[in-house]
Write a structure and sequence with these properties.
This protein has 621 residues and is of the alpha+beta class. The protein has 4 domains: 11-202, Heat Shock Protein 90 (2-Layer Sandwich), CATH 3.30.565.10; 233-367, 2-Layer Sandwich (Ribosomal Protein S5, domain 2); 398-487, Rossmann fold, CATH 3.40.50; 500-534 and 559-620, Four Helix Bundle (Hemerythrin (Met), subunit A), CATH 1.20.120. It is 36% helix and 20% strand. The chain contains 18 helices and 21 strands. GO terms for molecular function: ATP binding; ATP hydrolysis activity; ATP-dependent protein folding chaperone; unfolded protein binding. Keywords: ATP-binding, Chaperone, Nucleotide-binding.
């Protein structure tokens, strides 16, 4: 048996780095600025331990653009490197200085990088990279390292007046967009907006005003263009933050959004480290447009806004930031890897959100009810998709009826059990998805002593099915799915004032005038006070159709069907229609009654509606 070592050809590594290591070319700037931040953080740690002589002074990181020379320089005033360290950390791919530093100072340091590959992302946009560095150790000479994107490099001693490292990128001809000031500022704002040390990108003009009244004049001053806020709000203790500060920070994150409803401050250091602020936005009955609004940071470095691996699907409707060095990333920091820590973080965030909603409900129910319309989509989505969230949410989730009254699930079951328990012992929850369209149906139900709920969000079809599965002996019936006497099925039977022969005659009349595909005709003995003709949409078929529409599927075998229910006890049927002498008049009148029912369902439009109005005027004259 022969054993050996797999050989990696170093001349092949640069094409791989340039093309495949990173998902997005622009990440090079984030990686190099993050390295500068690490170097600065290391220096600060060593200084705090008394291992650096004297005051460490200004720790600002500079981004310097020279369009004419086609260079972009990232300059830090961190701990710098010796020649031996340059050879160790720059010439050995995937040998990260952060890794060794963390092992030595793991209790004191906050370091971003771990893989040792971020530096090489520079070669995605540069055909040559220079590193000029001077160690914090005064006896160590500064060095210059140069590489043009292949395994060969040059290294020499040089002159450098101050401690730290300059990484100079000679931008290649394919990447000249990174020589534009606006582009670099855009990337710095995206990736470095909350780094813990000042990031300076040249200067900017600030306008101030001096004097008063007619003597008031504007004064323009050149000041440092500091990109970032070094102490973002989520790093502060919640006890030290005012409500207005939370709102102001939200405006920083989402400048054109309406104020959030409320927020949750995340702050945990065991069994993992995680901080952040999650905001509840005004969803306005919308879901998709709100996704990718949570920003993920690792030690204040922006990583991504695609957080579905660490945040349950329903929580992606929230806005805000999550910052954790304990979320494992792959080498590019662009994608998350699923492991036990991620699952713990997911559970923690879900619990914190549920606990916050529950406390709001308990502390001020009226205020919670006032916000229910805004947060109901979020809560319902969570209850459908996350079992643990459902268990907590059923304590504070609300039903709202058409009279704008709110009930917990238990409260509502108690309210309706006397009048809305059917012959099989099931609680029948009547509901509407449109109060205006179903006005007459709702009135009929209320006159019968029933209560009607309102379900009008984009997710309610799914939510109703979930509740029917979860709640014992419970069914949901839309108020227009049947005649009022059959919404809550009982053994009571009403008698018709028409004989069987007269009923057959009435049915025959309506069969001649109704030939709509998918419709059926049914005669029922309803109250004389009910409508003469009622259109109902069968609950099962309608649900299937709506579910398919929501999922963007074809309608298949689910036509837009409805039942035409003729009330044989209504005077217009039992007296007027049956006693008409002319067959033509009977058919015209039956058609009129059918259209009256269609009008009640908003099914008459355009020409059909115009003809109906004309026909109504003829009957009235």
């Amino acid at each position: 048996m022969e054993k050996g070592h797999i050989s990696v050809q170093t001349e092949n590594i640069f094409p791989i780095i340039k093309k495949f290591l990173y998902s997005d070319q622009e990440i090079f700037l984030r990686e190099i600025v993050a390295n500068a931040t690490d170097a600065t953080s290391k220096l600060k740690t060593l200084s705090a331990r008394g291992e650096v002589d004297g005051d460490i002074g200004d720790l600002t990181i500079d981004i310097i653009l020279d369009k004419e020379a086609k260079t972009l320089t990232i300059r830090d005033r961190g701990l710098g490197m010796s020649e031996a360290e340059v050879k160790k950390f720059l010439n050995q791919v995937a040998f990260s200085s952060a890794e060794s530093f963390l092992k030595k100072y793991k209790d004191d340091a906050t370091i971003i990088g771990h893989f040792g590959l971020g530096f090489y992302s520079a070669f995605m946009v540069a055909d040559k990279v220079e590193v000029v560095t001077k160690s914090y150790k005064k006896s160590v000479k500064p060095v210059r390292w140069i590489c043009d994107g292949n395994p060969e490099y040059e290294i020499e001693t040089t002159k450098k007046d101050f401690r730290g490292t300059d990484v100079i990128l000679h931008i290649n001809d394919e990447s000249t967009e990174y020589l534009e000031k606006s582009k670099i500022e855009e990337l710095l704002v995206k990736y470095a907006k909350f780094l813990p040390f000042p990031i300076r990108f040249g200067t900017k003009t600030e306008t101030t005003f001096e004097g008063e009244g007619d003597d008031k004049k504007s004064v323009e001053t050149e000041v440092d263009n500091i990109i970032n806020a070094v102490a973002p709000l989520w790093k502060n203790s919640p006890t030290n933050i005012e409500e207005e500060q939370y709102k102001e920070f939200y405006k920083v994150l989402y400048p054109y959004s309406a104020d959030p409803l409320f927020w949750i401050h995340l702050n945990i250091d065991y069994p993992f480290n995680l901080t952040g602020i999650l905001y509840f936005p005004k969803l306005n009955n919308s879901m998709e447009v709100q996704k990718n609004k949570i920003q993920l940071y690792s030690n204040q470095v922006y990583v991504t806004d695609d957080v579905k691996e660490i945040v349950p699907e329903f929580l992606t409707l929230l806005h805000g930031v999550i910052d954790s060095p304990d979320i494992p990333l792959n080498v590019s920091r662009s994608y998350l890897q699923s492991d036990a820590n991620v699952k713990k973080i997911t559970s923690y965030i879900t619990k914190k959100v549920a606990d916050k909603l529950n406390s709001l409900f308990k502390e001020d129910r009226k205020e919670f009810e006032a916000k229910w319309k805004e947060i109901s989509v979020f809560v319902k989505y969570g209850m459908i998709s996350e079992e643990k969230f459902y268990e907590k949410a059923e304590k504070f989730a609300l039903f709202k009826n058409v009279d704008d009254e709110y009930f917990t699930f238990e409260e509502y079951a108690e309210k309706i059990k006397a009048n809305q328990t059917d012959k099989n012992g099931k609680l029948v929850h009547l509901y509407t998805n449109n109060k205006e369209d179903h006005f007459s149906y709702i009135n009929s139900a209320k006159e019968a002593g029933y209560d009607v709920l309102e379900f009008d969000t984009v997710i309610d079809n799914h939510f109703i099915q979930q509740l029917e599965y979860k709640l014992k002996d419970t069914t949901f019936v839309r108020v227009d799915s049947d005649t009022v006497d059959n919404l809550v099925q009982t053994d009571e039977v009403k008698e018709s004032v028409l004989s069987e022969k007269e009923q057959e005659k009435v049915k025959g009349i309506f069969e001649k005038v109704i030939n709509d595909k998918g419709s059926s005709i049914e005669l029922k003995a309803l109250s004389p006070n009910d409508h003469p003709v009622v259109l109902t949409k069968p609950e099962f078929m309608r649900r299937m159709k709506e579910m398919q529409q929501l999922q963007g599927m074809g309608m298949g075998d689910f036509p837009d069907s409805y039942n035409v229910v003729v009330n044989t006890n209504h005077p217009l049927v039992a007296d007027k229609l049956i006693k008409m002498k002319s067959e033509e008049k009977r058919e015209q009148f039956a058609d009129y009654l059918r259209k009256l029912a269609m009008l009640n369902q908003n099914m008459l439009k355009g020409e059909a509606l115009s003809k109906f109005i004309k026909q109504s005027l003829e009957y009235a004259s």
